[in-house]
């Protein structure tokens, strides 16, 4: 067979955490839908979650996607193979530090598979050297917004361009961005102080990025055009916003199996929502990693009750001793709220007509999924890029209000508790009927329409993906000719 006529083959290698695996598997499906052969590389303990998503895809996609496995070497001190099993920030940082041990097994897999392109998670900067050695183009996937990429590019300089406000030295403006972005000093971590791994890691990543063939982004141009243009210019590398990738999940099965099906009861939660008036319910979820203290959970429970807003709340803690007295009968039993323990079918919930808002930790997938569903947000960032995403939601897009979280979480037990009355006030502002809430709802709905257009034939993300595939096909043909 003429090699050049063989289909393009892309290897996807996501970080072992739901917030990176889910969008990368979605990406593999999107590329497969455009005629590409995709391989998703993961470890044995993560294979079931990837298979469960791929197995529910359309027949025509399924046969184009393969799952390949690589093992942690026995010397790597990992207790589990996914960051969502690790209960603390410290344990998750240690896990990130072990990832470089995958370098040698990755090298072996790469030599066997020999794909035409690698989409590697940013947490694997060492993949670039191996890709270069074999002459394979490599794109990085950061799992971040274009605003967060722009900020991270600024902050990785030896002297970050920050200016304190004259009347409030605790607040800084990040200079050189196309829009004014203000953060509290306490929201910006000194990564090298938090963990020696993270400090070194960002230096390594910066160097690796200089040599990669580009950056794939789960966002769409119209959502953050200024930052898309800015990042491309200052970072000096090709950038392909191809999202929102979650929109590749079309039917009920695909949406309900996304990520993990272990503890979900989709039917139960959807029938609960079916009984609620349109746009009345607040969905509350803090992503796949973070666990709050019992004291904070109790304040949340009181806050939701006081806001008088029906809610679906995903709680990762197993215990219930933090529930206020009588809460089960008064609130949960009374149909005013539902608690999901473990994993929720987030995309199904966000798209249910009864859901009118999302209280989110501002993980990028969650922000984008809410915007795609046309929902306003209550924002409660905790760590990583979440404080920057909050600025996009609240200040730039004006589709959310923050609870006032100001501390980047380094150790869970040191975080101050946000009181129930504060939570109730912000929830009521977002879910209420006044001019402010109506304005947010209208803007959010418009974002939802724009998001869908972006991935339709001819939309900005659709076109970007087509251009990338064309470029990769040309590079493949040139390699095969030489
Ligand atoms: N998610 C879900 N059900 C849950 C929790 C999370 O489907 O109970 C999905 C959510 O839709 C998103 C991802 O997991 O796609 C979480 O990514 P995000 O960037 O929002 O947060 P992280 O988990 O990385 O902090």
Automatic annotation (TrEMBL):
Q: Name one GO molecular function term.
A: UDP-glucosyltransferase activity
Q: Which Gene3D superfamilies match?
A: Glycogen Phosphorylase B
The highest taxon in the source lineage is: Eukaryota
Has UniProt tagged this entry with the keyword Transferase? yes
Q: Recorded E.C. number(s)? A: 2.4.1.-
The answer to whether keyword Membrane applies is: no
EC top class, in one word?
Answer: transferase
Q: Which UniProt keywords apply?
A: Glycosyltransferase, Transferase
* Pfam families, alphabetized: UDPGT
**Family matches, as InterPro entries:** UDP_glucos_trans (IPR002213), UDP_glycos_trans_CS (IPR035595)
Annotated family = Belongs to the UDP-glycosyltransferase family.
Q: Which PANTHER family match?
A: GLYCOSYLTRANSFERASE (PTHR48047), SCOPOLETIN GLUCOSYLTRANSFERASE-LIKE (PTHR48047:SF45)
Q: What is the protein named? A: Glycosyltransferase
Q: Which organism is it from?
A: Phoenix dactylifera
């Amino acid at each position: 067979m003429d090699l050049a006529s063989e289909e393009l083959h892309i290897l996807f290698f996501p970080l072992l955490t739901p917030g990176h695996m889910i969008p990368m598997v979605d990406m593999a499906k999107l590329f497969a839908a455009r005629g590409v052969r995709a391989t998703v590389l993961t470890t044995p303990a993560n294979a079931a979650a990837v298979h469960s998503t791929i197995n529910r895809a359309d027949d025509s996609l399924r046969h184009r996607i393969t799952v390949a496995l690589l093992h942690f070497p026995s010397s790597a001190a990992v207790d589990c193979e996914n960051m969502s099993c690790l209960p603390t920030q410290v344990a998750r940082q240690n896990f990130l530090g072990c990832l470089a041990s995958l370098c040698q097994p990755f090298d072996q897999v790469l030599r066997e598979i020999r794909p035409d392109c690698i989409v590697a998670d940013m947490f694997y900067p060492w993949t670039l050297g191996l890709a270069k050695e074999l002459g394979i183009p490599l794109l990085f996937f950061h799992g971040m917004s274009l605003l967060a990429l722009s900020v991270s590019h600024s902050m990785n300089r030896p002297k970050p361009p920050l200016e304190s406000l004259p009347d409030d030295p605790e607040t800084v403006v990040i200079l050189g961005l196309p829009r004014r972005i203000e953060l509290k000093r306490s929201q910006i971590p000194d990564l090298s102080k938090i963990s020696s791994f993270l400090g070194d890691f960002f230096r390594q990543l910066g160097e690796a990025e200089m040599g990669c063939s580009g950056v794939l982004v789960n966002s769409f141009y119209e959502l953050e055009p200024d930052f898309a243009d800015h990042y491309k210019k200052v970072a000096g590398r090709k950038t392909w916003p191809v999202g929102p990738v979650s929109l590749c999940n079309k039917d009920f099965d695909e949406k309900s199996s996304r990520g993990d099906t272990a503890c979900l009861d989709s039917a139960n939660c959807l029938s609960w929502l079916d009984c609620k008036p349109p746009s009345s319910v607040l969905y509350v979820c803090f992503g796949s990693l973070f666990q709050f203290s019992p004291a904070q959970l109790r304040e949340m429970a009181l806050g939701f009750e006081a806001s008088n807003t029906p809610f679906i709340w995903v709680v990762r803690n197993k215990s219930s001793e933090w529930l206020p007295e009588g809460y089960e009968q008064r609130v949960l039993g009374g149909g005013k709220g539902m608690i999901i323990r473990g994993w929720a079918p987030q995309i199904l919930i966000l798209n249910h007509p009864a859901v009118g808002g999302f209280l989110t930790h501002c993980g990028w997938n969650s922000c984008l999924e809410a915007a795609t569903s046309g929902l306003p947000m209550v924002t409660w960032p905790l760590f990583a890029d979440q404080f920057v995403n909050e600025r996009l939601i609240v200040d730039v897009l004006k589709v959310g209000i923050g609870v006032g979280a100001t501390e980047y979480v380094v150790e869970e037990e040191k975080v101050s508790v946000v009181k129930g009355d504060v939570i109730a006030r912000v929830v009521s502002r977002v879910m209420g009927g006044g001019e402010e809430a109506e304005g947010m709802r209208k803007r959010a709905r418009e974002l939802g329409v724009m998001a869908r257009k972006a991935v339709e034939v001819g939309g900005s993300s659709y076109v970007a993906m087509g251009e990338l595939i064309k470029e990769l096909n040309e590079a493949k043909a040139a390699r095969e000719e030489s």
